[in-house]
Amino acid sequence: MSRTVNLGGTGLTEVPPLHAGIRELYLHDNKLTALPDWIGDLPELRILDLSHQPLTALPDALGRLSSLEFLYVSDLAIQVLPDAMGELSSLRYLGATDNNLPVLPESLGRLRELVELRLYGNQLTSLPESLGGLTALRELHLDRNPLAGVPGTFDQLSELRVVSLRGTALTEFPVALSRLPRLRQLDLRANRITWLPDLGPDTFPALEKLDLRWLDLPVVPEWVHQLERRGCLVYRTAAGQ
């Protein structure tokens, strides 16, 4: 019995019967518009790839996949992520990019094993405060969302290493991120930030790369220069020199 089923790019319009013992299921690049509820009855499933097809909704049954570690649901026709996704207690990676999602469910904050979250290319204007509960998160990618800001609870994400906020609608510098003890890379390119706050000497204690390009910053505060003297690579345009 094969533990991997790869049906990606085969033109499927419906999911065929599957044996309950599979661990990896690849259904990407097909023509599926719906999933059967029995998709949740795969107790050993670790990887599920549903990306790049006209799926209009994800069933609540996905929440029953208690062993799932990697979920790919990018480039679909979905409008929401179901609340039941907060039940995926083993999930380590979630890729839900390029879906035009306007909101995220509060339940995502219960994904305590999540290490990487990719949400770029959606229509998110805000993020739930509950995301501060993602205590294992190391990478967060939010590029190309019309975000007005990030929650203050983000200062609880003590394991974060990489945050990408390129091309969002930020007008204020996300101060909550400056207190993260392990953050190494922060990308703020192409935002609407025109002013950087004065921060203390302990700002970004582990930062190795800060990208401020394509921001209109007539003045750069001392803490940015301190980062550079410490060896952090700071990218900025001529106006911010």
Succession of helices and strands: EEEEEEEEEEHE
Q: What percentage of amino acids are in beta strands?
A: 5-15%
Shape, principal axes of CA atoms? elongated
How far is the first residue's CA from the last residue's CA? 62 Å
Low-confidence stretches: none
* Overall mean pLDDT: 96
Structural class: mainly beta
Strand order of the largest sheet: 1-2-3-4-5-6-7-8-9-10-11
Largest sheet: 11 strands, parallel
Count all strands and give the number. 11
Helix content: under 10%
Number of helices: 1
Q: What's the alpha carbon Rg, rounded to whole Å?
A: 20 Å
Write up what this structure looks like:
Keywords: Leucine-rich repeat, Repeat. Residues 84-190 form the Disease resistance R13L4/SHOC-2-like LRR domain. This is Leucine-rich repeat domain-containing protein. It comes from Kribbella lupini. InterPro entries: Leu-rich_rpt, Leu-rich_rpt_typical-subtyp, LRR_dom_sf, LRR_domain-containing, LRR_R13L4/SHOC2-like. The chain is mainly beta and 241 residues long. 4% of the residues lie in helices and 14% in strands. It has one helix and eleven strands; from the N terminus they run ββββββββββαβ. The protein has one helix spanning 222-230, and strands spanning 4-6, 24-26, 47-49, 70-72, 93-95, 116-118, 139-141, 162-164, 185-187, 209-211, 233-235. It has an eleven-stranded parallel sheet, with helices on one face. The model has no long low-confidence stretch (mean pLDDT 96).
